[in-house]
Amino acid sequence: MLKVSDIREFIRLVDETNIHELHIETAELKVLIRKAETSRSAGGGAETATGSVPAPVGPPVMAHEASIKAAEKPPEHVEDTASAVVKSPMVGTFYRAPAPTSPSYVEVGAKVTEKTVVCIVEAMKLMNEIEADVRGEIVEVLAENGQLVEYGQPLFRVKLA
After folding, report:
1. 92 and 154 in one domain?
2. Does residue 119 share a domain with residue 155?
3. Do 113 and 152 reside in the same domain of the chain?
4. Helix (H) or strand (E) holding 5
5. Long-range contacts for 27-31 (Cβ within 8 Å, ≥24 apart)?
6. Are residues 156 and 87 in the same domain?
7. Which of 51-55, 101-105, 112-116, 150-154 has the lowest mean pLDDT?
8. Is the pLDDT higher at 94 or at 11?
9. What is d(CA 87, CA 89) in angstroms, rounded to the nearest whole number?
10. Taking residues 34-53, what's their average pLDDT?
11. Is 12 helix (H, G, I), strand (E, B) or coil?
């Protein structure tokens, strides 16, 4: 069963990412978390999601309205065939090391293979080790430690061997 702390974590993740709506349903509970839209119609002001969606029937629904943050544009990189990008396979929190006091898995200049663990992405309290999936040398770290990352977001740039 979902705890209030779990729901708070979902709200935080929706608020801090580009996800606009999250719907979770169990036998006992339905949870809908939706960001407010900046405007709904050409005729005027913004409508709230709860004002424009009919009230559900059945178990209670919790809705959360959060302001939409301006999406930060990632730095521009020139793509070439001599490098590859290691991307996040999921939405979660990016960690460069297995523990706060441990050294990073990789630094700029580190040689990696397809099976080298380069970071962890924490999602729903699960620590997921991310492998390089390419052979080469780390030339750039594209995410900050502790940062929320999106699915497909570039994490590392690797110069191919």
Report:
1. yes
2. yes
3. yes
4. helix 4-15
5. 28/1, 28/59, 29/1, 29/2, 29/59, 29/60, 30/56, 30/58, 30/59, 30/60, 30/61, 31/2, 31/7, 31/61, 31/62
6. yes
7. 51-55
8. 94
9. 6
10. 49
11. helix
Residue type for position 104: S
pLDDT band, residue 6 (cuts 50/70/90): confident
Neighbours of 138 (CB within 10 A): 22
Residues 88 and 156 in one domain: yes
Do the Cβ atoms of 62 and 6 come closer than 8 Å?
no
Please check whether residues 21 and 52 belong to one and the same domain.
yes
Domain CATH for 132: 2.40.50.100
Q: Is the pTM of this model over 0.70?
A: no
Radius of gyration (Cα) for the chain, nearest Å? 20
List pLDDT tens digits, range 86-131. Answer: 999 999 999 999 999 999 999 999 999 999 999 999 999 999 999 9
Q: Residue 142: give the domain boundaries.
A: 83-160
Judging by beta carbons within 10 Å of its beta carbon (0-12, 13-18, 19+), is residue 47 exposed, middle or buried? middle
